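Extended Data, panel c. Modelled sequence:
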Amino acid sequence: MKRTLFILPLLLLGLAPAGAYVPQIDFNEFGRIVRVKWPASSVRDGVAFSVNVKSFPFDSQAVLRIVRDSFGAWEGVATSDLSFVDEGTGSFVKSSTDRRNTILFDATGFDIGAPRGSGIIAITTINWDSFGNITDTDITFNGRDFNFSVSEVINTRGGVVDLQDTMTHEIGHLLGLDHTPLDGISTIRPTMHPFASPEGTGRTLASDDIAAMTHLYPGLRASETGTLTGQVFRANGDAAFGVHVVAHSRTTGLPVASSLSGSAGDNRGRGGDGRYEIQGLPPGDYHLSIAPVSGSVSEENLGGIFSNLEHGFPVEFYDNVSTLDGSRVVRVGAGRVAAGIDFTIGLTIPGFPLLVEQALPVNTPDVRGPYLVQMKVTDNDGIVSAEVSCQVNGSGAFMTSPLQHTGGDIWEGHLGAQPPGTTLSYRVRATDAVGNTSSFPAESEPAREFTVLDMSGAPVFYVVQSGSGLISVVDSGTGSEVARIPTGDTPHSLAMTPNEEVLFVANTGTPDQSGRTLTAIETATHRTLAQIDVGFGPLDLAVDAAGKTLFVTNSDARSLSVVDVLTLREVKRINLTAVVDGPFGVATRADGDTAYVTDIDGNQVLVIDVASASVTSIIPVLSSPRSLAISNDGGLLFVSGFDGGVGVIDLERGQQVRTVSTEGGIFRLAASPTSDRIYATSHENGNLLVIDPIAGLVSQTLPVLSTGQNTRGLTVSKDGSRIYVANQDSNDLVVFDAQTLSVIQTYRIGDGPRGIGVRITPFLEPFQTDEIAQADFDGDLLIGFSDFVLFAAGFGSIDGQPSFESRFDLDGDGQIGFADFLRFAELFGRRVA
């Protein structure tokens, strides 16, 4: 993977501000936004460091004491599990490729690389891979331009820089922290401020620094802290990027910690959703404020994605007031998330309705409709009405229909069905009790729109975009992406029910912030059916043959979630205390009674009886087992070795009976319909492997693409004729002919493609006029409430009874029952042409 260089300097300034933590977030070489931090393996084993003690013009024991105490300040955070490993001293040099974290003193300015007078006291250079995992860091002190003190006694005379202050600050960069952006008094100034603080104040960590460590590397005691989260919007409803959101202690009024909008969630950066998150807060009451990044600290002091930040607005406090004392108090509890603490920039006139989207149409293959429009509408004076105005194909008058208040703050309505190729533009308005009206989108912005898709009839691909938090929908007949469906935080895996009606997406989250939801999507409409809560880090998915039960590995929680597909709810969570790390991969027998999961660090597969929620046996397997696939007859289980190899498990014997050697690590597996072939993606080499499981050998190695990298996603069509492979880093979906094993199509898709689903079932055709007319019982050419009243009067009657009328028997089975009701519901709201 390409390594990217980060250079973060500590500067000298006479009067320094105080601040709040900002994790290092940047674009990788593929344009994806990643969080720069140490991977879990380094956190678990300890981040190593080395010191070129001879480069310092001071007593070596004093230097080593300062190094030890500076690292100790960060390692001493009780709510973080980060540790360090001292690899000793030596004549180490600054290098971006030696994977050694070196601390050295530059007496000449050569390694600093800055001109005299730049004000740079020290710099930390950071190299990281395309996932944001740090691979190499070096800390360099500017001995050419500054005099340093190594005294244990804090120097108050001026003219020298406290080496321990600076060391502690630079270690913060080494750990993945950017500079802080807020002004304040020196007694509460975080170590991670970009300018030097009064001597000695940076030796210890402020509450903000502690919150940062809890955020990046949470330990067991992180549950003793709480979280604040929300979004920041402009007045027109667009997300605002780079707004500083600060949590102030209610007791002292002083800032405790903060975040920048657009730095959190699954849609970060400019053009994202403006989400912020402040983790690691001590339980208590807080005031919140927003302000632009300005003053002595500007966006020039920040790195990565933080440029062109929102500016030109006054400081304001939650909720829409100008003073801290007048602001609402937000309570943070231990282990709790105070969510929905949203801001709209500008002290607007109180009382205007606020509209927040809940469910809005996306490009859809549904030609039968109707299309749901659902909004959350709030206002201090109460909402008296809400409506949606719609225009067809960008011309003609807007047609307006009311939204119905369905409970709480939710208002919803429907847009009528349209033929394929139609584009609908719409705008929602709400009016409060005193006549104030707000619009979504704002009247100054273009109306929202979506298209009723004209599908080709060829198979449709659903591809997880892990870097964008969405599903790309591709019509293989035209080769074009026709829709994007939002999912959740960093989705990875996808599973589809056997009838191809519902697909599930695991929102895994990032290494520093686990997700814990599944998104359920109806393929016929592209409508999100549910966000299902499961355990932390949902990763791999498996559905039983009947499509009744979904299994989800919770990779950060050592558990397996069991989800009922009909009700879209988690019905059981099975704790797996025998798992060392994970579980990761999952498979199930056709009947769904038995599930299998991988323990990637324990080198084992666990066999789980679903009914009793117990582990019935543990099968030792090859090293680093990642993914699973089961043969059609349920006799063999195949397990991929992330570091290499494919294991073959005889389930009747309950043991691994052979190992297929491979060149490079294996990520995903898929069996052909007859299970005489196993396909495997080699994530290290960018290859698709064809494996003969009986002979126990790789029969063919197929380069996915000449430029393919990080080959992971894999699925096989139901008839076995096509193999679909995703290259995560090159953003390609590649289709192979299973007979000739040749590439027949390549699609350039989105941002980090992973899981793949394929629908071959044709979409429904539009209702015909005579079908709609069947339900027009009152003859007014609109299927509406009056028709429902007539229908309800005959509901439950049977042919031969006096109350039975054949016109209400829409399915012609001689009774007016639930099937007729469902048919009527499909036609409700339609007009007879």
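Residues 66 and 574 are 47 Å apart (CA to CA). This feature is highlighted in the accompanying rendering.
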